[in-house]
Specification:
11 helices, two-stranded antiparallel ribbon, mainly alpha
């Protein structure tokens, strides 16, 4: 192994672990465990940035005959801009006429919202609480954004009417049973105070119904980047400098159909 091979291998291994952690955590985040949102957002935004940059670097490597882009282009031009990374990836797909087995783009508005929330988180929303405390320009609360732009659309579009009725009825029944002894004091993802047991139970039902779908959408985004990376691996290896690892061996777990992505909770 030369130094380039070793650096790429370590970067890919770290990226794979970050993406797996983020995809696992996003299934468990809810209004009562808000810290898990931040754990997931850190892992996902970092992992997507890194796999995106790996794809851009491999494209440059192929075009230049075995060279990598300079520091300035990766640090100053790209930085943490996940939306820009995706736009550049789509240009690579078009320029190289890449035929994907799965999604060749991320057309669903929920995919777009997830990338946008993670982009904002990476660009500064991760400091929203600190910015508020120190009087800085207020950035968006990433948890509130996720709830508005991801969870609510998933609930409206993917959860059946029957399931919604079950959630509402269960919340009402539990509230009635617990009325004489239960005390609730929480805040929702949107920041609203929760002091009513029925509302707390309802939000728990919403979380339980959307969490498998939110994980699936995240995994579809990861799979898009993995498939692009694998498509770039072969022409990069064909240059013959023995710099490029077999990324397919590292990221194979993500390169599967939706049925498998839905069946697994921990990545």
């Amino acid at each position: 192994m030369n130094d380039t091979f070793d650096a790429l291998l370590k970067e890919a291994g770290f990226t794979k672990e970050m993406l797996g952690a983020g995809a696992s955590q996003i299934r468990n985040a809810n209004y009562a465990s808000k810290g898990i949102y931040f754990q997931s957002f850190v892992s996902l935004s970092t992992g997507l940035e890194r796999i995106g940059k790996l794809c851009l670097m491999l494209d440059f490597y192929i075009r230049s005959g075995g060279e990598f882009p300079d520091f300035a282009s990766m640090k100053k031009e790209i930085g943490h801009k996940l939306i820009l990374l995706y736009e550049k990836s789509q240009k690579i797909v078009a320029d190289r006429s890449i035929a994907f087995r799965y999604l060749k783009c991320l057309p669903d508005p929920i995919h777009t919202s997830i990338v946008s929330v993670l982009h904002g988180f990476a660009e500064g929303d991760r400091y929203a609480n600190i910015n508020h405390l120190v009087g800085s320009i207020q950035t968006d609360d990433p948890i509130s954004r996720w709830y508005r732009e991801v969870d609510i659309p998933i609930y409206e579009q993917r959860v059946t009417g029957h399931k919604k009725e079950v959630i509402a009825c269960k919340a009402a029944m539990l509230a009635k049973a617990a009325k004489s002894w239960a005390v609730v004091f929480h805040s929702s993802e949107s920041g609203k105070e929760i002091t009513d047991f029925e509302e707390a139970s309802f939000l728990t039902g919403v979380y339980e119904s959307v969490s498998p779908y939110r994980q699936l959408y995240v995994l579809q985004i990861i799979r898009y980047w993995v498939e692009l990376l694998l498509e770039l691996e072969s022409p990069a290896r064909a240059i013959g400098k023995q710099d490029i690892p077999y990324f397919g061996e590292l990221f194979a777990i993500f390169y599967n159909d939706d049925k498998l992505l839905r069946s697994r909770k921990t990545w």
